[in-house]
Amino acid sequence: MKTAGCKFNIDVRPPKDYVHPNGIRGIKSIEFGTKKHFVQVIRELCDDEGLHLYIGEGVRNLEFEYEESVNVDTISIN
Question: CA 63, CA 76: separation in Å to the nearest integer?
Fold first, then answer.
């Protein structure tokens, strides 16, 4: 069976030393909600120390890593 030509990018990280135009270098920490039966699978597949899972939906307590010249902020998403 032939696919429609879509390719999924498994290398989702930006190039090394990439800085977004607003000064963000990366995500320092994020709480991500998912279903209970996915928690163990995600933990086994992802070793990112900044990813914190909870049972629920959505993203909360997102903390960005900025260039040294910019203050670090935490954003709470409810």
Answer: 8
**Pairing outcome for strands 74-75 and 58-66:** antiparallel
Q: How far apart are CA 14 and CA 26, in angstroms?
A: 9
The pLDDT value given to residue 3: 47
pLDDT tens digits, 12-51:
777 888 888 888 988 899 999 999 999 999 999 998 999 9
Residue 33 forms beta bridges with which residues?
54, 58
Ramachandran sector of residue 59 (left: φ over 0; alpha: ψ -120 to 50; beta: rest) = beta
CA dist 57 and 74 (Å) reads 19
Q: Number of helices and strands (H, E) in the chain?
A: 1, 4
